[in-house]
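Here is the promised in-class demo. Please do not try to memorize the tokens; focus on the logic of going from shape to residues.
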């Protein structure tokens, strides 16, 4: 019987899982742009146990200062604690060898398989992030109205179409915290419109190729799963959602699935199966997960997109996200 390479011959789980985690971040445009950031504390919280992760914080000090004199004592104020809450996302995916067979012909089979799996998870991160934003901005009850700049229903074309001028208005929704916003996420049709208006510049990569689009000096992540609707009030033109982010608007914490990677074999079918599981936090900083409408052990993407599950915890200007709704014509 001829020898053949099977998945269990080329994948060592203790090596494969860290490789997939690292490569997922390298392949995620949201991570590379700084919109998603991680730190050891978030990783620790993701492995601390429980479906909901409480992240307490101290509210800022408030109240007027007082004039000192020799007759009156100062009136003590107080500092209050609040909490942000994140949901632990527990996800997994399995592939048969037929889905990954082309990867096994590479010079480094494990890296080839790992790149395919990592690219898959990078795409899933994108979907989690965008569905979360759907929920966070899905209703005024989430208290995020101060972080929305909506011009899609304006009567004149100049007022409802995205431009440098009204994008600046959107950036200044954060008031004097405007400089915390460092990047955009846009639909490709929005990028194309701005490119036609000569408002898109490109940063060359390490090989000198112009690959990274920028707008108003800020990096742009292009993703066609961003919302597009045909319900703009005055115009029948589609309306588009652009998000403006600050660095670290989403926090990432990598948890520890009990068995992150394993192989199985369906001998009757002759299939080798790769199973990959991940536990992680991917949380909009300052908007607390309410867990009000979750049917299972961990929220689905549709449940992340349900506004009932979100409510602002931080002061609006301290949440580094602005939703900008506009048209293109």
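The designed amino acids, position by position:
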């Amino acid at each position: 019987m001829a020898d053949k390479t099977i998945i269990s011959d080329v994948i060592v789980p203790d090596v494969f899982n860290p490789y997939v985690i690292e490569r997922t971040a390298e392949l995620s445009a949201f991570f590379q742009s700084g919109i998603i950031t991680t730190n050891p504390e978030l990783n620790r919280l993701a492995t601390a146990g429980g479906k909901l992760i409480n992240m307490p914080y101290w509210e800022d000090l408030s109240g007027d200062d007082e004039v000192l004199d020799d007759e009156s004592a100062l009136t003590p104020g107080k500092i209050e604690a609040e909490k942000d809450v994140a949901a632990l996302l527990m996800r997994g995916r399995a592939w048969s060898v037929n889905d990954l067979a082309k990867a096994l012909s590479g010079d480094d089979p494990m890296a080839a398989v790992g790149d395919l799996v990592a690219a898959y998870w990078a795409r899933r991160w994108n979907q989690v992030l965008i569905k979360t934003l759907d929920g966070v901005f899905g209703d005024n009850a989430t208290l995020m109205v101060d972080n929305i700049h909506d011009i899609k229903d304006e009567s004149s074309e100049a007022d409802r179409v995205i431009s440098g001028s009204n994008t600046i208005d959107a950036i200044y929704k954060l008031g004097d915290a405007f400089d915390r916003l460092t990047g955009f996420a846009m639909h490709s049709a929005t990028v194309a419109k701005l490119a036609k208006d000569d408002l898109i510049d490109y940063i060359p990569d390490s090989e000198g190729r112009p690959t990274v689009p920028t707008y108003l000096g800020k990096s742009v992540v292009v993703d066609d799963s961003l919302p597009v609707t045909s319900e703009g009030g005055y115009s029948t033109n589609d309306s588009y959602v652009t998000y403006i982010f600050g660095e670290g608007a989403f926090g990432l914490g990598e948890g520890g699935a009990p068995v992150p990677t394993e192989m199985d074999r369906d001998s009757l079918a002759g299939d080798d199966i790769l199973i990959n599981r991940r536990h992680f936090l991917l949380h909009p900083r300052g908007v607390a997960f309410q867990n009000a409408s979750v049917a299972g052990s961990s929220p689905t993407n549709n449940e992340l997109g349900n506004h009932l599950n979100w409510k602002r915890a931080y002061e609006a200007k301290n949440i580094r996200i602005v939703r900008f709704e506009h048209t293109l014509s």
